[in-house]
Amino acid sequence: MSQTLSRVRLGLWAAVLVAAVAATILFVVAPPKSGGGIGGGTYALVDQRGNPIDQTMLVGQPSLLFFGYTHCPDVCPTTMGEMAGWFETLGTDVGTLKAYFVTVDPTRDTPEMLNDYVSWVSDRITGVTGDPAQIDRIVKAWAVLAEKVPGAVDGDYTVNHTASVFLVNPKGEFEGTIAYGEDQATAVAKIRKLLGKA
User: Taking the CB of the first residue and of the last residue of the chain, which one, N or C, has fewer CB atoms within 10 A?
Assistant: First the structure.
């Protein structure tokens, strides 16, 4: 019975990974253009310390924006680790760059849980959560896939979500993406361009 359950869980995780990669490929093959309906919107959220934040968090400095969740088995921890590598590689060139990890699972991702999750990566990464209706607003504003998938055990679930990291300019506008698993040198070059240091 336990082997069957393990196989079912493995199959579900594989499906989540395939969906995330497919969403990323869609962004690579047909990326949205700046000002083409992606980004913007209004929403009232909180950071991992419970402080209120809204759409202005993305204005005033270049930003990286990633949508994920703390129970994610693979894409999110991998991406968070890559972000840490990008910041380390950029060193002092990072300037005012900020990064945001917006949960697509606000029911489980409390501010406290997000704080534990993002704090080990970098003090430049802010965890973002809030009321599900407000999370829906930012998810829709950035045209993100966020789809709950029931698990093998009652009450258990995963979330299919876009695996790309969004590049956001100081005006809060979409500038491009870093694909899931993209080569580090390519990712860092994109960030340098965003920072005006290419």
Answer: N
pLDDT at 3: 53
CA torsion 37-42-48-49 (nearest 10°) is 150
92-119 pLDDT per residue, tens: 999 999 999 999 999 999 999 999 999 9
Structural domains of the chain, ranges and CATH numbers in brackets: 2-194 (3.40.30.10)
Q: Which of 6-10, 76-80, 85-89, 187-191 has the lowest mean pLDDT?
A: 6-10
- Which residue from 145, 149, 175 is spatially nearest to 163, judged by alpha carbons? 145
Q: Decide: helix, strand or coil at residue 188.
A: helix
How many Å apart are CA 162 and CA 181, to the nearest integer?
A: 13
Q: What is the rounded distance in angstroms from the CA atom of residue 185 to the CA atom of residue 75? A: 19
DSSP string spanning 33-85? PTTSS-B----EEEETTS-EEEGGGGSSS-EEEEEE-TT-SSHHHHHHHHHHH
Contact 182, 86 (CB under 8 A): no
* Residue 74 DSSP symbol: S
What pLDDT digit, counting tens, does each position of 60-73 carry?
Answer: 999 999 999 999 99
